[in-house]
Structure to design on (900 residues):
């Protein structure tokens, strides 16, 4: 996959020597998930900011049930080693903060953690939802966590990630799939980000009896834009996690689509998602598989032009494919029993929809629009126990980026805390996690998969 | 003519046409110049497998064939299936009946399904005129076989000494009837002249074929019948802007021997071009389709195969369907007018026009068919409504498997739109060797 010569060089034995001598920035090799891999590759440190923390016990019980060594003291010797031995994770229960003074406790815990965290380690800060606080001091303390996490993300090395999860009041027992995602290597390229759990009221679901190696077993998924690139990887990842996958793409991409569908043992549906009959055709096809549990709106196009040179047709084609088609299909899903109770809609936004990108006014508009769609659709889905979330990829290594000019490509890769592009599977892992039945409390979220790209950060 | 049975026993059940896949057809030595029959058939099968989510599944049977076939491709269908995503345990066999091949394979699969011998099957056909087999000529073959039979080195040398320069020239397959030495076009030109088929009428058929095919593409008709291949997303013979006026400017290419130049009416546009391509149809019992919640587009009702003596001048080479259709109608208690759609393979525009003329002719119907009344005409607006071979091209053995799902989908659309009732369609394909295969589908 990689045509990242710089990464290959600084990771070679000769390159490492040279890089060390002349001070070239290292490019960490990221640990990525495969079935059967343990949640953490070593011991975990678990800190609490205040005695009122409500998630530490949930985290502790998950980790100890899995046989993971857990210590409260950040200086504790681990794994039969010393007080400086590497750890696989440092987790802080930062709920229950009453003022910014409480943040010092978190600093006291994370300072040694930053020194001890191992390659592809996981630092996870779990806090309360700032908007739920009315007291200025409390809300300030809660909001401070985001600045702490985003800054620590820029300091973390060797593929370690630092992320923040907000848990709504009362949702502390609904975070298992989220904990598993952020602690495992499924979130390899999710870094410096924030995610809210349980913030859309009325959610329902359970993580009882989940096979965490095949969390999508028995579920049927549709992936649009599945012929190649990220979409094809999404189809394969959903299949790996147990789903039956309906692969959709435009008729002109039908040959690549057939390959993807046959690779995942799914079915191929050649369909222009902007056609009037598209929602009905999609639901008809899904009925063959007994209905739908997961819809991944991955299909997207770019028609890049400077706004000064843009024309109506190009503009409309981008908005139609990237936004209108999703809205229309979502309406059909909401009104149909083919889309099962407990269904999941996952859509693809973009860094360009958050930070903007030169030459991409249409694309940026459509991808920002996707975020608005997610926010407004989330509460509508509650009555079906369904959710909608978006992933916003940053620089992902695909055939499209391989064709970029070298300068643009190198800038895209290096201008992130991880100094590299992500892989399509990084986006796919996030989508597959949103798609899990066990992710029932994650709704209306937009999660960037970008290695903490500096654009729009 | 053999007398037709006036009715037939009710079959145990009717085979359902579930769906199909073909690759776009490509003009000879074009987009598929380097694709073999096996490559194209495998691609068409894989597209079908993907459309119906059958990767790794076994179907009852895959029956296919090619007209232009290398001797090393003796097990063409089996090799294609082994290279496809179907289960390797899927049995196959090859059939060849010239242009009728894949309507005949459809009939074979449908019959086994009707009898309960299989629950599902794929009928297919493929042909390449680009990657055509080339044989050594008969003289060289005799010499080489003699050398092979020789028991001593001296014997081998003696046999090889019989080689002559002229024997090196290979035999390239030609579109020529072995017993008359005439090309198919020359045969068709004779028939056209005999029935007085005009240039204008032929060009009207050709222009309509292109225009109808273009419209069908525009409305996405082929989205679930076709999968792109080697960069082609549509039949590349299609000329959407074809008009009768434009076609009238072309020079004729076929002229019947002994006729004046004014009788030369057949052009490159109202004759099918040499084409490469492959097509497949998925058939099944209703139960098999229902278990998988797959649609049933239409049912295969009945079919008839006929042959005429074109060698002794008794009948035109491509006129066999003129005999098969009346027998099929009689057996099923139908008239020529009882159909919602007519899918006639346009080998040449003149061929189908000559067939229609014969059915309207009291003398032909009396003398050749033994009827007191002619079969008559039918509503031409129901003919080849989404284009046919003049526009799509005609990879010989693939044409039946193109037409069957096309008609099945048209019938399905009609009953779908009307919400009830049945729709019925007639398929007719003429074939080299003076043969014809015709069939009825119903939805």
């Amino acid at each position: 996959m990689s045509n990242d010569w710089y990464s290959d060089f600084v990771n070679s034995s000769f390159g490492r020597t040279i890089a060390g001598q002349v001070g070239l920035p290292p490019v960490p090799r990221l640990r990525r998930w495969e079935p059967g891999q343990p949640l953490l590759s070593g011991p975990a440190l678990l800190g609490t900011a205040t005695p009122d923390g409500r998630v530490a016990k949930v985290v502790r019980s998950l980790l100890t049930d899995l046989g993971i060594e857990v210590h409260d003291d950040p200086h504790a010797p681990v794994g039969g080693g010393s007080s400086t031995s590497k750890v696989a994770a440092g987790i802080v229960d930062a709920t229950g903060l009453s003022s910014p003074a409480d943040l010092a406790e978190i600093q006291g815990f994370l300072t040694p953690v930053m020194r001890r965290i191992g390659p592809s380690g996981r630092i996870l800060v779990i806090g309360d939802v700032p908007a739920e606080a009315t007291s200025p001091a409390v809300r300030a303390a809660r909001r401070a966590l985001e600045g702490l996490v985003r800054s620590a993300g820029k300091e973390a090395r060797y593929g370690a990630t630092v992320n923040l999860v907000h848990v709504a009041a009362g949702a502390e027992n609904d975070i298992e799939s989220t904990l598993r995602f952020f602690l495992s290597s499924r979130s390899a390229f999710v870094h410096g980000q924030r995610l809210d759990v349980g913030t859309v009221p009325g959610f329902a679901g359970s993580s009882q009896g989940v096979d965490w190696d095949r969390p999508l077993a028995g579920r049927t998924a549709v992936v649009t834009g599945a012929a190649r690139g990220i979409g094809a990887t999404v189809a394969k990842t959903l299949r790996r996690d147990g789903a039956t996958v309906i692969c959709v793409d435009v008729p002109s991409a039908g040959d690549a689509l057939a390959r993807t569908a046959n690779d995942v043992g799914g079915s191929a549906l050649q369909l222009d998602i902007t056609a009037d009959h598209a929602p009905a055709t999609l639901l008809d096809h899904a009925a063959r598989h007994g209905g739908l549990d997961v819809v991944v709106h991955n299909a997207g196009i770019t028609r890049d032009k400077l706004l000064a040179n843009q024309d109506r047709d190009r503009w409309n084609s981008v908005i139609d494919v990237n936004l209108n088609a999703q809205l229309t299909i979502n309406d059909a899903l909401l009104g149909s029993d083919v889309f099962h109770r407990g269904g999941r809609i996952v859509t693809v936004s973009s860094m360009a929809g958050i930070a903007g990108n030169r030459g991409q006014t249409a694309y940026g508009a459509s991808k920002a629009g996707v975020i608005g769609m997610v926010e407004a659709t989330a509460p509508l889905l509650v009555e079906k126990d369904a959710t909608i979330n978006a992933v916003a990829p940053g620089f992902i290594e695909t055939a499209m980026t391989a064709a970029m000019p070298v300068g643009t490509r190198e800038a895209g890769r290096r201008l992130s805390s991880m100094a590299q592009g992500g892989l399509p599977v990084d986006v796919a892992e996030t989508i597959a996690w949103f798609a899990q039945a066990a992710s029932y409390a994650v709704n209306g979220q937009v999660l960037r998969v970008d290695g903490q790209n500096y654009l729009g950060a | 003519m053999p007398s037709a049975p006036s009715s037939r026993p009710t079959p145990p059940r009717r085979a359902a046409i579930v769906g199909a896949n073909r690759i776009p057809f490509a003009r000879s030595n074009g987009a598929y110049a380097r694709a073999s029959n096996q490559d194209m058939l495998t691609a068409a099968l894989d597209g079908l497998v993907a459309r119906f989510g059958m990767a790794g599944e076994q179907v009852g049977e895959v029956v296919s064939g090619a007209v232009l076939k290398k001797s090393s491709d003796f097990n063409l269908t089996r090799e294609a299936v082994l290279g496809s995503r179907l289960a390797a345990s899927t049995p196959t066999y090859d059939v060849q009946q010239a242009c009728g091949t894949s309507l005949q394979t459809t009939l074979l699969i449908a019959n086994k399904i009707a009898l309960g011998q299989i629950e599902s099957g794929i009928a297919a056909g493929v042909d390449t005129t680009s990657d055509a087999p080339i044989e050594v000529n008969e003289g060289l073959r005799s010499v080489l076989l003699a050398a092979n039979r020789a028991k001593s080195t001296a014997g081998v040398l003696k046999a090889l000494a019989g080689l002559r320069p002229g024997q090196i020239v290979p035999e390239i397959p030609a579109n020529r009837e072995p017993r008359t030495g005439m090309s198919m076009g020359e045969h068709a030109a004779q028939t056209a002249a005999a029935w007085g088929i005009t240039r204008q009428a032929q060009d009207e058929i050709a222009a309509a074929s292109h225009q109808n095919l273009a419209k069908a593409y525009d409305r996405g008709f082929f989205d679930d019948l076709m999968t792109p291949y080697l960069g082609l997303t549509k039949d590349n013979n299609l000329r959407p802007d074809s008009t009768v006026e434009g076609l009238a400017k072309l020079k004729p290419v076929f002229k019947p021997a002994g006729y004046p130049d004014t009788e030369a009416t057949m052009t490159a546009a109202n004759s099918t071009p040499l084409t490469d391509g492959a097509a497949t149809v998925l058939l099944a019992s209703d139960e098999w389709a229902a278990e998988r919640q797959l649609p049933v587009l239409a049912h295969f009702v009945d079919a008839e195969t006929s042959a005429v003596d074109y060698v002794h001048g008794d009948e035109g080479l491509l006129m066999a369907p003129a005999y098969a259709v009346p027998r099929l109608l009689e057996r099923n208690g139908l008239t020529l007018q009882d159909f919602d759609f007519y899918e006639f393979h346009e080998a040449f525009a003149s061929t189908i026009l000559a067939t229609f003329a014969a059915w309207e002719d009291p003398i032909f119907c009396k003398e050749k068919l033994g009827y007191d009344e002619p079969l008559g005409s039918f509503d031409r607006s129901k003919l080849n409504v989404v284009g046919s071979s003049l526009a799509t091209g005609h990879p010989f053995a693939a044409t039946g498997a193109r037409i069957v799902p096309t008609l099945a989908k048209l019938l399905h659309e009609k009953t779908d739109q009307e919400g009830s009732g049945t729709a019925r369609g007639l398929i007719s394909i003429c074939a080299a060797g003076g043969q014809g295969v015709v069939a009825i589908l119903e939805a």
Notes: Chain B has a mean pLDDT of 93. Chain B touches chain A through 23 residues (CB under 8 Å).
